[in-house]
Amino acid sequence: MAKPIHILNGPNLNLLGTREPDIYGAATLEDIRTLCTEAASDLGCQIDFRQTNTEGELVTWIQDAAETASGIVLNAAAYTHTSVAVLDALKTCTVPVVEVHLSNVYKREPFRHNSYVSPAATGVICGFGPHGYVLALEAIAKLIAGKQE
Ligand code: DQA
Prior knowledge:
Rossmann fold, binds 1,3,4-trihydroxy-5-OXO-cyclohexanecarboxylic acid
């Protein structure tokens, strides 16, 4: 049985749907989970979809994913811009990591232009809303398939 792709979501993403809808849209995190479940089924892979508001829990989940996941889709939300601990945890991962943001962070405030995730990520997807998660899953599925060839 192939390992699942872990989809890890950081702080305040539990509020999607009501949180700044002009920026993040109307989809809730449950809607995004459903989208990811459907995309994973099409791609023939399993997912483990989680959200936390706590930096330490996110770090523990990244450490866990390094062992138990075939890849990581990470929307670290605000910790993207602040967390050396998240970067250090990602540096221990040998599986593909795709950094995702719903919004185009480069169109927003300058403090969102710095990412502690990007230096340890295989690739970055931002600005496509919930569809970015599907793109990230497709990218990881392709990388995993390429390794098996
Ligand atoms: C976000 C962008 C971050 O800057 C912000 O702190 C978030 C969400 C996004 O998905 O667009 O919480 O990661």
